[in-house]
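Operator note (shift B, R.M.): manual run for CHAT domain-containing protein requested after the automated queue skipped it. Running by hand, logging everything below so the morning shift can see what happened. Input copied straight from the record, untouched. If output looks odd, do not overwrite the archive copy; leave it for review.
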Amino acid sequence: MCEILVRVGCGWAKNDRNDYFDFRLATATTTRRKERGKKALLSPDGVGRLRDAEPRENPPTGASGWRAAARRANPPDIEKALWAQQEAVRITPEGSEDLPKRLSNLGGSFVDRFERSGELSDIAEAISALQRAVQLTPEHTPYLPALLTNLGGTYLRRFGRTSELSDITEAITVQRKAVKLTYRKDASMLNNLGISLDSRYGMTGDLSDVTEAVSALRLAVKLTPPAHADLPSRLTNLGSALQLRFEQTVDSSDIEEAISVQRRAVQLTPYNHATLPGWINNLGNSLQARFKQARNLSDIDEAIAIQSQAVNIMPHGHSTLPNLLGNLGQSFLLRFSTRGEREDLNQCISRHKDAATYRVGSPRSKLNSATIWAQLLVKHYPQSPDILPAFDTALSLVALIAGLEQTVRGRYEQLKGASGIAVEAAAAALSLERPDKALEWLEQGRCLVWIQLSNLRTPLDDLRLQNQELADRIAEVSKQLETAGSSRATGHLGMSMLEKISVEDEARSHLSLAKLWDDLLQEARAIPGFETFLRPVPCSTLLQHLPEEGPIVVINVDKHRCDAIALLNGMDEPLHIPLPNFSLKKANDYRSRLKAQLRSQGLRDRAYDHDREVVDSHPTLLARPLRPVIRGNPGENIVRGVLRGLWVEVAKPILDHLSIPMKDESSDVPLRLWWCLTGPLSFLPIHAAGVYLDSNREGVLDYVISSYTPTVTALADQVKNPRSINTHVSGVFFTSQPNAPGASSIPGTAKEVQSIYSSATRNGVRSLMVEGSALTNAAEPLQSRFLFQNGSLHLATIIQRKLKNADLAFLSACQTSTGEEKLSDEAVHLAAGMLAAGYRRVVATMWSISDSAAQEVAINFYEYLWSKRGEVRSAAFDGSLAAYALHDAIQRLMGRLDNSERSLLTWVPFVHFGY
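Run finished. Output pasted below as returned.
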């Protein structure tokens, strides 16, 4: 028997295809011999009779009949098979030799339903059943290889949805064992191993994987008799592996062989066979690949013809149909790029639209189509009314590929492949003069993981007034989901089967929680007045909760255009500010130049001390004034050039458009401005943009007090929900450890903390002093941590505490506001993480800072806060003036520095996040 498997990758022509996995029925040869002539389909009535039978009479599984029905892709038959096999497992005694076989068949039926529904819960149930089957089977049992290969194929299917490398690695591990146990003489085992190897190649690009896959699949075909029913599936798998290898090596013999064996597979398959649409699709993909190299129009014409046939004969409602539609759309696009006929372009757009909006299917596959649909409309029909629904569809699918059923790490891995969609959508909306829609899309499609965390912690007071029980259930599930997302165990090499089963049990529980969460949200949204509960916030709502102290400026950086969207308290619509002199290319260039300069200066570690080149050595930084600094090298103008570009092309046009004047030194309350940045601009210090000449300077600091916010929603929520700090528990917690294990030595930090601690004590502020450093984990942000002499404190732990009185975090460790380049719109850094943990404001740094500068800024920062406490003093602490305090501390530092590169590198990295 064989089954359709669709593996979804990053691009249509390269990776979307149908593989055919030989799912070995657990009614293996030994069982068939023993029960030949006694088989009967397991029907509902039959199960009842079997229940009353003697315990020694083992019930037949009926797998062949029911799974044959499933092969015909009839949903009722799949449900009957699943029900029957669940009953068969239930009534089979523990210890029975038939139990592993029936568990395997149960897993197979869950796989069948997954193929139709695309529900990850089905594949999780399949893995669980098959793991148990393997665990119960002794090492030398004849059908163990079949169980192993079935388990591997099920991991492979889940990999096709989640792209989790651990899944495909586990698939290959168990399938290698199956091949070894059959002495490389079983065509089915070799076929399945080959599929998994070239699937991993599609993710990693390791040529050795696809080369080994071709070798295994060739041998599988060689070992398969000419009249064998599985020969077509093995031929098409071999062809697909050859096609993948051709796309890297451009060896024409590979693509010729691929097309040849796939034609043979199609010819050997009956017209009404359930797998025929997928085999035709794969042949079309190989013809696509050959067309790209040879540009022979007959290839792309044939690809379109046969892929259209595949779409037409695929059963309605099948979860792989979006893949087939997407591949057909790409063939039309290839022909349009050669012939230029508009009808081909229109057909391409239509097919991708159909794929993106299909009711079932892989979210990743549908997202690919939605993105192409939107991009083609923007390029060829820039005024089309379909642009808005196209991007709406794409952004809703982005949320699905990074759903709560995955770990935080898994969500970030998925988002790497969807980076930039929100920015692209916003640019299209701005071209259509819809800044409101642009803002909504940026809020919906960026910082998704932090938004999910915020949703899990949303206040439920209003809902409790309507439905106390529902609010309590939502609160409980949210806690469990938060824990599962950050602490779920993951598989690793060397685990026992019991350990693997435990990991899968956690994964299934996580999946069930995510489904329950969705159900609870639907229940809440059915209550009048709660229709938008935890849905993306519309622009009109955001505008109701803006800070009075100054505007929020969102800057969108896209390859087509760059714009700012300004939000001002009291205005009923966002203000659109085009930035025609700025571009994505310039942003990337500025980021690359700044990054190279930081590396050349050794500013990736706070332990690097260039103080002697910046300031004169001094026994204490509390004394004033300090003598002039030593000048930097006059030829170093990288930082000055970047800051000048940001000033002329971005910051100054925005300030002018908003009519913000240069600050009057006599003004008591300077205007604040919050920057919300996208793409490569989020790695650049827009708060320090300016012209810094030898004799004078002008920049953002002369106009406003800058802060940053990852999203507008994050800041609007703080404005909407002002929080008073409990004065009985309010105080300052200091942390600074100069020699934490695993971190570079920062000797000045002890003096820094001691000085501030003493100052706090003198001012009567309740204080606690501990010392430590910090490390950001870009792969798993919730595992970012603060290092101490006797251990570490993870961000996940801080978040789980749900600190009600968290107000200000001052993180003067290195690069605490620097994100992950592949996730530039996800704010993957400690500063954003502390905001997500409940802190209202965070002081952080964009790169490593000198020890002496860190001391001076921190001491002056806190001295400013002490000085503004007013006449009535208490032991409580208030960080609401943190942005003003940092601004003042930076100006003090700048006052004794020149405008050299090294001086700029000293004060520019300090930033303020939050309210």
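Quick read of the result: The first helix runs from residue 12 to 15. Residues 1-17, 24-73, 605-635, 766-772 have pLDDT under 50 and may be disordered.
Leaving this for review. - R.M.
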